Amino acid sequence: MTAAGRSDADEDADRWREECGVYAIYGHPDAAAHAILGLHALQHRGQEAAGIVSFDGAHFNTYRATGLVGDSFSDPRVVEGLPGHAAIGHNRYATTGGSVLRNVQPFFGDFAFGGLAIAHNGNLTNALGLRRRLVEAGCLFQSTSDTEVLVHLIARSGQRSIVERLIDALHQVEGAYSLVGVYDDGIIGARDPLGVRPLVLGRLGDALILASETCALDIIGAELVRDVLPGEVILIDKAGLHSLFPFVRTARRFCIFEYVYFARPDSLVEGRGVYDVRKEIGRELAREAPAAADVVVPVPDSGVPAAIGYAQEAGLPFELGIIRNHYVGRTFIEPTDNIRHLGVRLKHNANRSTLVGKSVVLVDDSIVRGTTSTKIVNMVRAAGATAIHMRIASPPTTNSCYYGVDTPERSKLLAAQHTLEEMARLIGVDSLAFLSIDGLYRAVGEARREAGQPQYCDACFTGDYPTRLADADDGGRDRQLTFLQHER
Question: What is the model's pTM?
């Protein structure tokens, strides 16, 4: 790997990796065009690759490509090659693994009952064991994605209908998923019984839509009907919408970090506006961890709403003390050792006039490994800040995620290896404070986190995983990451 490659990988590994975005539409003559727009809106959930499968009443049509949606689907000939009244789409996030087209979703299969394409957001925590059994039974895998495990389980099911086969397959998997599929009679959607990952139902005239977030409905002028419920399977065909609940009901464990970072600020998630929740997170943070300062500055972009809330609660001015360059992709040069440390300036630059001579509250959404935070703090101090009080709009990240978020292993998480004082010294700030877990729960509308009965999945902060981690227990974390998160 080149020096530039190492630099990029180091910086990427210090941020949360977005999950995936899914989209499905039925009953519209321009289904694929609307799916492309939906994927545009969900671009923040995955920037490495995208794919669409449409159905025109006789044939399934597929287009998959690496890169951003705008780059891959801008040619009119792409849309022309995806005719039909039904379509599903998928955005894939960037990972540490190589980018190969065979792993880009949706996945399509010709089954005995007809064609079916599926795409999903999440991770199956027992996929390694299932894959091993399927390979021993003679199944041939074409990708390294856990989504393909579902394809083989559906193919081997002894049930009759597509819906029954899918439900049979889902009964065999564990973990988190929000998935969509298109077959020759309609589209299908499903959400895991815990509801870890988001999925919403929308309407545009007579067309029905499934999407990861409401911003994908807004972009085409569709209305939000409701959230798909945890454990719900939805079938949409010529007869309309059919809802099934084939799993044992259990307490919901929606991913609380969707509110902190993943979801777009203009989305409604589980009935709450993400922007409003992030501002309330900032207010809670100001109440818990005040600082004697002159100005509040966000680390853009995800830290902005929390910084606004912090400034409002603390009665301090809010300033854009760091400007983000939105037009930076991966580094295309191979820098020398002398300039590689300047790479953070490709994405962020200090706004000196708002920082010089000021004591600054610097607000960010989280700290993963700490390397990027250190660079940003050094940049702010070099711009003339007299003191830097860093405030983090989430609890310390001390555990890896197994449910569709590409996080480093626990040994590389800064908060898992150091005390608060040690982290402050390593990052180079005058003070450091994180939002408490109860403060985060209050910000999302709960009185507090109930010990033993958490209302959300907060395992990255608490280590309280809501499902069995079968693959992690059988072979270790590294093997699971290689398969489950290598090609999501």
Answer: 0.90
Q: Are residues 299 and 334 in the same domain?
A: yes
Active-site residue, selected from the candidate residues 20, 215, 255, 401? 20
460 is a catalytic site residue: no
Q: How many domains does the chain have?
A: 2
Instruction: Write out the chain's pLDDT in tens, 488 residues.
Output: 223 333 344 455 565 555 799 999 999 999 999 999 999 999 999 988 999 999 999 999 999 999 999 999 999 999 999 999 999 999 998 543 345 788 899 999 998 889 999 999 999 999 999 999 999 999 989 888 889 999 999 999 999 999 999 999 999 999 999 999 999 989 999 999 999 999 999 999 999 999 999 999 999 999 999 999 999 999 999 999 999 999 999 999 999 999 999 999 999 999 999 999 999 999 999 999 999 999 999 999 889 999 999 999 999 999 999 999 877 654 444 445 555 555 566 789 999 999 999 999 999 999 999 999 999 999 999 999 999 999 999 999 999 999 988 788 899 999 999 999 999 999 999 999 999 999 999 999 998 898 878 999 999 999 999 999 988 776 544 444 444 443 33
Does residue 268 form part of some domain?
no
Write out the residue range of the structural domain in which residue 299 sits: 273-458
Residues 208 and 149 in one domain: yes
Task: Supply the DSSP string of 382-432, one letter for each residue.
Answer: HTT-SEEEEEESS----S---SS-B---GGG-HHHHS-HHHHHHHHT-SEE
Judge whether 478 and 484 are in contact, CB under 8 Å: no
Contact 121, 263 (CB under 8 A): no
Q: Are strands 114-124 and 175-183 parallel, antiparallel or unpaired?
A: antiparallel
